Amino acid sequence: MSEPERAEAQRTMSSEIHHEHRDVSGGWLRPSVFGAMDGLVSNFALIAGIAGGRASQHVIMLAGLAGLAAGAFSMAAGEYISVASQSELAQAEIAVELGELINNAKAEEAELAQLYQARGLDANLAAEVARQLSRNPDEALEIHAREELGIDPGNLPSPLVAAGSSFLFFALGAFLPVLPYLLGASNLWPAGILAAIGLFSAGALVSRVTARSWWFSGLRQLLLGGAAAAFTFGVGSLIGTSGL
């Protein structure tokens, strides 16, 4: 092989082997995105509903701040319980798998061989791969957990990270529609404009970790958030003008 051909082959191998994937484990991304979106949509909808009932600036501001605090704590608590329960279930299943590896090592090795055989390896090769992978107990446990349970024992989501991310980003999202009232706004338009910018920007930002285009993701979030605010504004207007 000539020198130019060798260099081209090396470049091809480098482009095929060296690449990076985005973090899709969900440890912080999902609660952060969901928290920000929920905070912005729910608090703006809350403010819009109260504004539709012709409440005073002080009442709207108080309701917005109360919604921020209550929602952030509720989101954080729910996220913590959810992720902690999921992690505890995963750990319990990993413990079951560990017990099987200790008490029925040969059966687990045969199970792993059958799994690889089902994926296309011939029987002898599958058995040899399973035998070699089963020599290290820690590695065997990790492989069985991934193959049978779909989880990585060393990379389970952290309940504290999930709760903290949810709390912080919900509070940031919920603060946007309250800010104009804190600065002296007397009607819903400034909060609506700021919320619309936040909704579109948040949706566009999410597109960086998805396959959607930035404008589609941003517009989708803007339409959904706007629909929620319009609905609660209508409810507030109805109740406020009916004297209930």
Q: Show unreliable segments.
A: 12-19, 21-26
Termini separation = 87 Å
- Give the % helix: over 70%
Label the overall shape. Answer: elongated
Number of helices: 9
Strand segment count: 0
The SSE order reads HHHHHHHHH
Q: What does this protein structure show overall?
A:
With 244 residues, the chain is an all-alpha fold. The protein is built from nine helices and no strands. Helix 4 crosses helix 5 (123-133) and helix 8 (189-206) packs antiparallel against helix 9 (214-242). The longest helix has 47 residues, at 57-103.
What attributes characterize this protein structure?
elongated; mainly alpha; 9 helices; 244 residues
Q: Brief overview, please?
A:
This protein is an all-alpha fold and 244 residues long. It is built from 9 helices and no strands.
Question: What's the helix and strand layout?
Answer:
Layout: H1 3-17, H2 29-52, H3 57-103, H4 105-118, H5 123-133, H6 137-149, H7 159-182, H8 189-206, H9 214-242
